[in-house]
Amino acid sequence: MAASVLRRSSRLAAAAARAEPVASSLKPKNESVCFSKKAGSVSKKVKESNDFHEPISSPPDSQEAVVSTVESELARELGLNRGKLLKKMPSRDMEAELWDMGFQRVAGVDEAGRGPLAGPVVAAACIIPSSVIIEGIDDSKKINEAKREELYNVITSTPGVSYAVHVVDAAIIDEINILQATMQAMTACVQKLSRETKGLLVPDFILVDGNRLPENFPENSRSVVKGDAICHVIAAASILAKVTRDRIMLSYDLKWPEYGFKTHKGYGTSVHMSALLKYGPCDIHRRSFAPLKDQGCCAAEEYTREKPSDDQFLPDAGSNTSKRKTRRRGI
């Protein structure tokens, strides 16, 4: 197929070399043209100025135009769109800039689970040294579940990588609201990363996904809007947070299969909403979220019993992060 396109490009180039200037078919700009315009059964002659006509460009007669035409035809032959030929992946440019400034342990922080009607919010912090290369890391929302699991395993098993994860359950979300719960999760995972890495990779600069930083965060920190789509280390943290939360929701699906947590992970899909109408909320639903709040559901304190422990889903960082677990209410 590529050979046929190259042959066609040769013919196009030869034709362009032989092509003679083509006279414009337009009338001079100051002239007028007449055409018939029918209104009902009456035909009228209407005069219209050519001032509004744009000139027709001459056929391409340069080598650049021929090459552009060949490239377009090649793209069509291959069924590709030029804009999709190169996929923009999160880069290490932001980290490299900080490395040049003397910050060598740059941590990325992201969360998963702010929007669902059920389940916890999970935050992760991750440091990937400049000497470590992990291919394929992308925003967790842009890759499928199998690829996320694969990258999670690679990130958590690569020597030199340091990370920590923190879970805040639905009961606490209802008590302090989802924004504060997210900030709490981010703060906690950074604190874990700092104290549980045995001093090897304590972060000296932190990049946080979003448009705000948690209160009392370290001075050397910066929020990055859409950071999981543009910053490599934030994207890695997004994968750790997303996979951890998904695993928790899969465990909840075993206990409450009627809600379909396995498929929608607690988000307000039509299947989930139908289950809520039929069965009402279960222990892990967020009572402070609409439409549950509008139904006058019981207080958060009343549904913190007999839930699977989320600690079993926190990543084991091996030599980089200890297995120390903190007490969290309800989980």
Automatic annotation (TrEMBL):
Localization, per the record, is: Cytoplasm
EC numbers listed for it are: 3.1.26.4
Q: Where does a divalent metal cation bind?
A: 110-111, 209
GO MF, one annotated term: RNA binding
Q: Which InterPro entries match?
A: RNase_HII, RNase_HII/HIII, RNase_HII/HIII_dom, RNaseH-like_sf, RNaseH_sf
Question: Which stretches are tagged as biased composition: Basic residues?
Answer: 322-331
How many cofactors are bound and how? Manganese or magnesium. Binds 1 divalent metal ion per monomer in the absence of substrate. May bind a second metal ion after substrate binding.
Q: What positions does the domain RNase H type-2 occupy?
A: 104-301
Main subcellular localisation: cytoplasm
Q: Which cofactor does it need?
A: Mg(2+); Mn(2+)
List all Low complexity biased stretches: 1-26
Region Disordered: start-end pairs? 1-30, 306-331
Catalyzed reactions? Endonucleolytic cleavage to 5'-phosphomonoester
An example GO biological process term is:
RNA catabolic process
Give one Pfam hit by family name: RNase_HII
Highest taxon of the lineage: Eukaryota
Query: What is one cellular component GO term in this UniProt entry?
Result: cytoplasm
What is the enzyme's main class?
hydrolase
User: What keywords would UniProt list here?
Assistant: Cytoplasm, Endonuclease, Hydrolase, Manganese, Metal-binding, Nuclease
* Family the UniProt entry places it in: Belongs to the RNase HII family.
Q: What is this protein's function?
A: Endonuclease that specifically degrades the RNA of RNA-DNA hybrids.
Q: Which HAMAP family match?
A: RNase_HII_B
The protein here is known as Ribonuclease
Q: From what organism does this protein derive?
A: Riccia fluitans
